[in-house]
Amino acid sequence: MIIRSAIRSDLGAILRLLRELGDETPTHPSAVRMSSAAVRAWTRIETDEDRTVLVAERRGQIIGTLDLLLVANLTHDAKPWALVDNVVVEAGSRRGGVGRALVDDAVDRAARAGCYKVEVLSHERRHGAHAFYTTLGFDNTTEGFRRYL
Ligand SMILES: CC(C)(COP(=O)(O)OP(=O)(O)OC[C@H]1O[C@@H](n2cnc3c(N)ncnc32)[C@H](O)[C@@H]1OP(=O)(O)O)[C@@H](O)C(=O)NCCC(=O)NCCS
């Protein structure tokens, strides 16, 4: 398995994986629609030097993804911080170290960029994800608030 930065031709596989987050109306996995909005969003992402979408690839198949955002900052000696989001490993490949490899790679990138912290938010119902992040050294010490628009 390799972890690498995603390229445009990975977009369909990434969108298929993101369906597993269950944030949208479920569709058959083969019926993922690559909307023009998603393609426009990808164009913004790939030209943003503070944004990296990672993929885990095994035998030519994309089996996991993660979105890393570096945020410029005025506190902590103006060191940036990093946000990790949209972490998904395909259901059949879980508990095999793929998620850990994705997060480790993201944390390495954040450290190399001089970040002083990496943040991740996870819905309170995602108990498996909470155990995952705790195992990887993230402290559950903050209360998160979210207002959907
Ligand atoms: C959360 C997720 C990304 C973890 O990916 P993964 O490849 O299965 O994770 P790993 O195999 O690298 O797990 C590393 C360690 O984290 C812990 N862990 C991972 N998933 C866990 C779970 N469901 N329950 C308890 N501990 C878990 C274990 O200690 C594991 O090591 P072990 O398997 O040797 O015991 C994956 O389960 C997933 O895609 N879930 C659905 C989407 C989701 O919830 N994403 C997070 C959104 S915030």
TrEMBL record:
PROSITE patterns: GNAT. Keywords: Acyltransferase, Transferase. Gene3D superfamilies: 3.40.630.30. SUPFAM superfamilies: Acyl-CoA N-acyltransferases (Nat). It comes from the Bacteria. Pfam families: Acetyltransf_1. Residues 1-149 form the N-acetyltransferase domain. InterPro entries: Acyl_CoA_acyltransferase, Bact_Acetyltransf, GNAT_dom. PANTHER family: ACETYLTRANSFERASE, AMINOALKYLPHOSPHONATE N-ACETYLTRANSFERASE-RELATED-RELATED. This is GNAT family N-acetyltransferase. It comes from Lipingzhangella rawalii.
